[in-house]
Amino acid sequence: MEILGLVFAGTATPHRAAMTTFVEQTLGLRRVDAGTADADMFALPDGSGFAVSDEREDGGGTSRTVGLRVADLSTAVAELASAGVEVDEPGENDQYRYAHFIAPDGDLYELVEELRPPQG
Question: CATH second-level architecture of 3-114?
Answer without folding.
Answer: Roll (3.10)
